[in-house]
TrEMBL record:
Its membrane topology: Multi-pass membrane protein
Cellular localisation: Cell membrane
Entry-linked SUPFAM superfamilies: MFS general substrate transporter (SSF103473)
Organism: Streptomyces heilongjiangensis
Pfam families linked: MFS_1 (PF07690)
Transmembrane regions: 22-40, 52-71, 77-98, 110-129, 141-160, 172-191, 203-222, 238-260, 272-293, 305-323, 329-355, 376-393, 440-463
Source species taxonomy: Bacteria, Bacillati, Actinomycetota, Actinomycetes, Kitasatosporales
Entry superkingdom: Bacteria
Name the record gives this protein: MFS transporter
UniProt entry keywords in alphabetical sequence: Antibiotic resistance, Cell membrane, Membrane, Transmembrane, Transmembrane helix, Transport
Residue ranges of every copy of the Major facilitator superfamily (MFS) profile domain listed in the record: 1-467
InterPro entries named among the record's database cross-references: EmrB-like (IPR004638), MFS (IPR011701), MFS_dom (IPR020846), MFS_trans_sf (IPR036259)
Length: 484
């Protein structure tokens, strides 16, 4: 999901996408991914995990080829949604393989490796995309996807055996439909809020309708004999804490990546590769902290490093919030290091909390919920932080005395403002637009910091009475909470 962020300025310049459309280009993937993940995992369980993986990889390669030839933002949004469908079939097997293979006493260490790779892959994906963008246009990112998907397809076909449980579950089509509709309406209302106004009837009614549909999903799942996700699992406070933490961590993290890649290239003027290299210290801090987290948990318990990690995420974003075009890179570095270290410290115990709170026969549930929390958090983070950024940019941008056709272009996005400013030689318009973007980014990153603080508060409250491993529920206890 993160690798395309580095190509956003190029996409905006070539397709004339507005700031709202840029949000959709990124979020269409993660929204569909999150909405279909549980259904895709169920279909894989029933009809064959290898078959689902091969089908997902083939669709991902085909969708990436089509996206490489797109010339309109609407087409690109649609094809990104197709890639989200493909990813929903590819992702579920990864964590469940780890948690099913390693015994409980080694699982936290194995999960720490998974968490380090999962978190750092976002930044490494940016680096790979930035490298190919030095040689070609934004379309090269999709061609890179094609190559990786083909390699993964061949590897899966040769090395991965088929496995399925055809008689285990019925497919909950109604639950899947309610998830797609509810999340779709909610995210649409948030992303389009700058167009209509945050207090407008369209925005408030859209948010309310989305929440009502999602409440209907919860009610349906409570009654369904084979739910996609049994809400009763959240009675376990450790499971609930892990889910909330992962969601809010990636809300802040992916929202930051979406905002930062545009800031580095459009405000600071960095190339795609330099922009990707600029955030590499975040990954450098994330990987060792994720590996350190299990050792700290063994010495002082999981709660302390978990909470410290969430607080560090908030601190990092708060440090980055005041950035503008003249900020020193040392200020960026001062925010990236605690942000990366905090993600690593918090991600490992949160992921382990989800998997350790479930018995062995429900580990695929834990894997699916972890993936869902990550992608849902990312989708909402991009929607909310992108919308806050867009609203702040538009509210701050001063277009007095600017011809209407130029003002309309500048109002749509910073990339468009830079293009028309360079074309007309209006450097004051470009500076004004960059300052307005920095003002919107300030609000967006503080919103992300607030989400991390909220996550820390939620974890502190939930873990205050949740003691592990003494009261870890048995298989019998949890088998009645949800079956997969």
């Amino acid at each position: 999901m993160a690798s395309l962020n580095v190509a956003l300025p190029g996409i905006a310049r070539e397709t004339h996408a507005s700031q709202t459309q840029l949000s959709w280009i990124i979020d269409a993937y993660s929204l569909v991914f999150a909405a279909l993940l549980l259904l895709a995992a169920t279909l894989g369980d029933r009809f064959g995990r290898r078959r689902a993986l091969l089908g997902g990889l083939a669709l991902f390669a085909g969708g990436s080829v089509a996206a490489a030839f797109a010339s309109e933002p609407e087409t690109l949004i649609t094809l990104r949604a197709v890639l989200g469908v493909a990813a929903a079939f590819v992702m579920p097997a990864t964590l469940s393989t780890i948690t099913s293979t390693f015994p409980r006493e080694q699982r936290t260490r194995a999960v720490s490796v998974w968490a380090a790779v999962a978190g750092a892959s976002a930044v490494l994906g940016l680096l790979a995309s930035g490298s190919v963008l030095e040689l070609w246009s934004w379309r090269s990112v999709f061609w890179l996807n094609v190559v990786l998907a083909v390699v993964a397809f061949v590897g899966t076909y040769v090395f991965v055996p088929e496995s399925a449980e055809p008689g285990k579950r019925r497919v909950d089509i109604v639950g899947a439909t309610l998830t797609v509709v509810g999340l779709g309406i909610l995210v649409y209302a948030v992303i389009e809020a700058p167009e209509h106004g945050w207090a407008s009837t369209e925005t408030l009614s859209g948010m309310a309708l989305g929440l009502v549909v999602l409440a209907g999903f919860v009610a349906w799942e409570l009654r369904h004999p084979d739910p996609l996700l049994d809400p009763r699992l959240f009675r376990d406070k450790l499971f609930a804490a892990g889910t909330v933490s992962i969601t809010l961590q990636f809300f802040a993290f992916f929202g930051f990546i979406f905002v930062a890649m545009q800031y580095l290239q459009l405000v600071r003027g960095s190339s795609a590769l330099v922009a990707a290299l600029s955030v590499l210290p975040m990954s450098a801090a994330m990987i060792p902290s994720a590996r350190l987290a299990p050792k700290l948990a063994a010495r002082v318990g999981a709660r302390r490093p978990w909470l410290v990690g969430l607080v560090l995420v908030a601190v990092g974003l708060a440090v980055l919030a005041p950035l503008d075009g003249g900020s020193s890179y040392w200020l960026i570095l001062a925010g990236l290091v605690p942000l990366g270290a905090g993600m690593g410290l918090a991600m490992t115990p949160a992921t382990a909390a989800i998997t350790d709170s479930l018995p062995s026969h429900l580990q695929n549930v834990g894997s699916a919920v972890n993936d869902l929390s990550r992608e849902l958090g990312g989708a909402l983070g991009i929607a909310v932080l992108g919308s806050v950024l867009n609203a702040g940019y538009r509210d701050t941008l001063d277009l007095d005395g600017v011809p209407s056709h130029i003002a309309e272009a500048a109002h749509s996005s910073l990339a468009a403002a830079n293009v028309v400013g360079a074309r007309t030689g209006d450097t004051s318009l470009m500076e004004n637009a960059r300052d307005a973007f920095a003002s919107g980014m300030h609000l967006a990153l503080l919103t992300g910091a607030g989400a991390a603080v909220l996550g820390a508060v939620a974890v502190a409250v939930l873990l205050r009475t949740a003691h592990r491993p003494a009261d870890t529920p048995t298989d019998a206890d949890l088998s009645t909470a949800g079956q997969r």
